[in-house]
Amino acid sequence: MRKLTLALMASAIALAGATGVSAAEIAVIVKTVNSTFWQNVQKGAEAAIGTSKAGHTMTFQGPAAESAIADEVNMVENAVNRKVAGILLAPSDPDALVPAVKKAWEARIPVVIIDSQLAPSAEKYYQAFLATDNKKAGELAAKALIDKVGTTGKIAVMSYVAGAGSEIGRVGGFNDYIKANSKLQIVGPFYSQSQMATALNQTTDVLAANSDLVGIFGANEPTAIGMGRAIKQAGKAGKVAAIGFDGNQDLQEFVKDGTLNATVVQGSYQMGEKGIDTLLKILNKEKVDKVIDTGVVVVSKDNIDKPEAKNVLY
């Protein structure tokens, strides 16, 4: 009987230990792991976890591609099922992720959203939203392009995933600013599904079909990289004004060699760092703002080596 009692106690202790480990986990789930932008978000999140004294661990996950929305849904549901302490989520679709986030809310697992907004109906299911003001970022990209090409002519918009919250604000802000402040004709948008090779092929076709193109905008990292490579391959560098988005090494080199006139860079590291900090505050029962702007910087040759740019480039 004593052996049975000891065995039961050992099982209970083991179960409690397992539950404790699970409860200490913060799950960071992003749109894809195959992007330096999201890897920079990971670095920021890891830094915040590393300096925290709360004792939480962190896992980092994302689908192979941003278009693999069902995979991301499964990752969130799995995190809920293993009873994580909190979830930091960059949703790849404003609607598809809502049921999974609702499950987290029902399980009393706090969720902080980064980068892309969920549908308005989901507002009560998450505790905070940290992101670039994508409408403002799109407007800054449009202004940078107008500064280079003027207010007449034809421009192209190379976008990424139609319907993604960041895409709606960013490309919408770009298009609205162009229409309100110029007579530029917009070709597109063309959707790369955040695949660099797709963006390269699409941009090659757009340049070939529009010999009178004066400007072009690549709306996220893989799209802008593909766009830049296509511009160089077509011999159009410096001849067609180009504005990119995000700030990895490829895009920095394009700015330095003149393929891009500028790139609009988000605080990706800050999204991860501030996202985790916000989640830790929520877990500590502290009050947080519902919406937190993580900012953008327009990076050109003029400021690429200055602190304002170095703080966001990666």
From TrEMBL:
Q: Which Gene3D superfamilies does this entry report, sorted A to Z?
A: 3.40.50.2300
Keyword Cell cycle set for record: no
Q: Which residue intervals define the domain Periplasmic binding protein in the entry?
A: 26-287
GO: which molecular function terms? Answer: carbohydrate binding
Enumerate the UniProt keywords alphabetically.
Signal
Location(s) in or outside the cell: Cell envelope
Q: Where is the signal peptide?
A: 1-23
Its cellular-component GO annotations read: cell envelope
Q: What is its main location?
A: other
This chain's protein is named: LacI family transcriptional regulator
Write down the species.
Rhizobium deserti
